[in-house]
Each structure stands twice: as C-alpha cells, then as structure tokens.
Amino acid sequence: MNGTYWIKHSVLAVVVAVALAAPAQAATPDAWITTKTKLSLLTTEGVSGTAIHVDTILGKVTLHGKVPSADEKEKAESIARKIDGVLEVRNLLQVVTPERKKAVQLSDDALKQRVEKALQDDVSLKESSISVKSVNKGVVLLSGTAKTLSAHLRAVETVAWVPGVGRVASRDGGGWPGARVCPW
Fold it and tell me: Global pTM?
C-alpha cells in the first residue's frame, strides 16, 4: 500500500511539474484583435479602411473587401500581422481599379460640420468626449477621450463613412477605458 501511494504521488508530481513548466499564455480575445486591426486600418494613410472588412477566429484574421491597388492589399496585410495576438492573416482582398469618378471636393469647413454632426448624432458615443480638432484636404483629426476601445473604433468608423472624408487621423492612448483619442 505504501508503494502504490508513493507511485501515485510521484506520477502526480511529474504531471504538475510538466504543466507548470509549459508557458501559460492567455489568448488575446478575437473581438479585441478585430477592433485593433480595424482601427489600425482606418487610421493608416494609404489604406481604404472602410472598404476592408476584418473577421477573427481563434487569432486568425481574415481580410476581405475591395481595394484599389496591390500595394494597398499588401499594406493592409502587413498592418494586420503587426497586431498583438494575431496568429495568421488570410488576405482575401480583391484589387479593383477605381473607375474614374468626378470627385466632389467639399470645403474643409463644410466637411468639419458634417463630421461633427455625425459624431453628435451617434448615440453610442454620448459617454465619450470626442471632437474634430481639424480637417485638412479630407483628412480629419480627432481629439478628446473615448470611454472604451469600442467607442474609439465607433468614432473612427462613423467619421470615415462621412462623404468627403479621405482619412481619419487618430491615435489611441493605450490604456482603456478612458484613453485619449489623440494625446495632445
């Protein structure tokens, strides 16, 4: 009896030692990876963030949608690979050359008013304090504080969808909740 007791506890000790020796890594949540990837795409110059859709399953990111060039397709994939927690990127983006369209240039002042209205009308942003710092040739610079990372993403997406917006400039402050949208 004393011999089997010793064997059982020795086996248990070996199992525990092996389990503790293995690195304990907590997987990054897929929703966080998707949000950070989308936010990075939306705020990177030269990437049509609103045209790129992001899905994440078990750390594997899939990019899909249409972009105007092969360079943009590669840039989007590169951005996605740099996000913490991304294990793999599947790039299903289609390169579709843009048809020549007569661009309607909005004045920066008119665009700023449209963006401010879009932010004000978004009920999900009521608890955040996000404003338009400036607009320059279609590039919108946000400032203020987002209550959550999701609110930050929502603000950038809301602004990006306003007709005439070419790009949204925003930097997260790194700590959530209450991180600054633009730390200046």
Answer: 0.55
| 109 is a domain residue | yes
Domains of the chain: total = 2
- Domain-ending residue, one of 81, 101, 121: 101
Token pair 């401010």: residue: 116
pLDDT score of 48: 83
> The domain containing residue 79 runs over which residues?
27-101
Residues in the chain predicted with pLDDT less than 50, given as ranges, are: 21-24, 100-105, 172-184
> Are 146 and 160 within 8 A, CB to CB?
no
pLDDT at res. 163: 87
Cα 135–Cα 162–Cα 92 angle in degrees, nearest 5: 110
CA-CA distance, 43 to 177, in Å (whole number)?
20
Which of 45, 73, 101 terminates a domain? The answer is: 101
Burial of 88 (0-12, 13-18, 19+ CB in 10 A): exposed
User: What's residue 11's pLDDT?
Assistant: 56
Same domain, 42 and 85: yes
Degrees to nearest 5, angle at CA 48 with 118 and 51: 75
